[in-house]
Amino acid sequence: MSEVVLLRSLDSLPAIYRVLETETERVVALRFTGDSTASDCIFMDEVLMRTVARVHRFGVVYAVDLRLVPQAAQRFGVQPWRTFSLQFFFRARPLKVDAGTGDTAHLTRPVSSVRQMVDLFEVVYRQAKRGKWLAVAPFRLSTGA
């Protein structure tokens, strides 16, 4: 049975900046949402919670509730009407991820498995360590078409 770890929450813009500035050797994933009860958000949170323990050496995940930190939506380019938005950072720089959805700044569709999420963290981390700010996901997310 895999270990499940609750996502740590950031409840202010200074707390977000502090994490981004102090995490210098790991990828930081911020999961933004305005509705943590939406089914896609709940599913993604479950995947992320199971992923955290597996990527703790090179990645960390934080949850940001846009109802508590509304200014984060504008600062990080998050569309608050989306059920969730996942954005990656390394050494305070935003990383882009091409998962086949057209939006490389944020993942806005759920990743279907923990294995895929771990693989994504590994690819993003390797690219970031090489100074590359765009990573191609090892899978494609459905466009729902």
UniProtKB/TrEMBL annotation:
GO terms for cellular component: spliceosomal complex; U4/U6 x U5 tri-snRNP complex; U5 snRNP. This is Thioredoxin-like protein 4B. GO terms for biological process: mRNA splicing, via spliceosome. Belongs to the DIM1 family. InterPro entries: Dim1, Thioredoxin-like_sf. Keywords: mRNA processing, mRNA splicing, Nucleus. The keyword Nucleus applies. The gene is TXNL4B_1. Pfam families: DIM1. It is found in: Nucleus.
